[in-house]
Amino acid sequence: MKILNTIKDMRIAVKEAQRNGKTIGFVPTMGYLHEGHLSLVRRARAENDLVVVSIFVNPTQFGEGEGFETYPRDLERDSNLVESAGADIVFAPAAAEMYPLGAATYVEIASDITGKLCGASRPGHFKGVTTIVTKLFNIVTPDRAYFGQKDAQQVAVIEQMVRDLYLGVEIVPCPIVREEDGLAMSSRNTYLTNDERKAAAILSTALAKAQEMIKDGERNALEIRKVITEKINSEPLSQIDYIEIVNDRTLEPIEEIKGSLLIALAVKIGKTRLIDNIRLEV
Ligand code: AMP
Questions:
Q1: How far apart are CA 205 and CA 183, in angstroms?
Q2: Same domain, 88 and 215
Q3: What is the span of the domain harbouring residue 200?
Q4: Which of 17, 73, 145, 267 is the most exposed place for a label (fewest CB within 10 A)?
Q5: Is residue 282 included in any domain, yes or no?
Q6: Active-site position among 37, 45, 116, 127
Q7: From the CB of 187, is ligand 1 less than 6 Å away?
Q8: 193 shares a domain with 69
Q9: Largest CA distance in the chain
């Protein structure tokens, strides 16, 4: 496996692969990898000839005080992990490579899809995401790109961007990988103290309860939202940011449980903001 740090080297590797008729699968990450990330790499490995994993903590998607500087980083450990998951290339550019002095062009979706859910409490976050993903797509020129359903809004946003800009990349959403107690894996879980780690299971427990209610025939989204809220509030270390039940493509709130929907939430456990969701077809 190669580790490349420059756009020039990355382009050379991609051109060579394409000259040889190889398909390219791409997994963008911010590193500090866990099984969730690796599931995307394995899927990319199974479906493509060349697998590229980017590791880049993207400054423009962090707001003030959102922990860009303290985000966990360990390139050596990450490289070993992605190699064992079958990647061919790690692309790990420096910040100045992706945002050189004078770079002034951003990609921003003009609809409210980026202003809801996580976008409401993280203004500018998705502008940073769409900008970096566009830059990475332009460098790696993948046939398929793999994203975790854990960041469900990110998937909806990227899919909209790819549709709007005819980017010609197939977006492959992949299921959420969870810890044994149900907590969705996240690089941010490393911030949790022992007590907080135990408390964090409340997110998936509440979502499982919602799923059970729907299975039992409940169709009133408000009622389901109320039960999730009560459940999460029963955990003293938790503080709800949002709990939303929305159409999974437009992210518009729904009142009746019907069609393709997403129950998404963001909850602070202590100082750490965690997200989780379930997607349902009713
Ligand atoms: P990040 O490094 O947090 O930017 O995540 C990189 C990619 O991994 C994104 O597409 C995430 O949605 C995905 N990912 C993160 N955690 C998980 C998880 N627990 N299960 C599946 N995919 C995940």
A1: 9
A2: no
A3: 187-275
A4: 73
A5: no
A6: 37
A7: yes
A8: no
A9: 58
Within a domain: 280 = no
Among positive and negative, which fits the CA dihedral 144, 30, 154, 128?
Answer: negative
- Confirm whether 37 is a catalytic residue: yes
How far apart (Å, rounded) are the C-alpha atoms in residues 89 and 97?
17
pLDDT in tens, 167-196: 999 999 999 999 999 999 999 999 999 999
pLDDT of 14-65, one tens digit each?
999 999 999 999 999 999 999 999 999 999 999 999 999 999 999 999 999 9
CB 61 near ligand 1, within 6 Å: no
User: Which residue among 27, 40, 126 has the greatest number of ligand 1 atoms within 8 angstroms of its CB, and so is best to mutate?
Assistant: 40
184 lines ligand 1 (CB under 6 A): yes
Cross-strand bridge partners of residue 104: none
Residue of 214, 225, 227, 205 whose CA lies nearest to 257: 214
Tell me the per-residue pLDDT of 220-241, one tens digit each, with 9 for 90 and over.
999 999 999 999 999 999 999 9
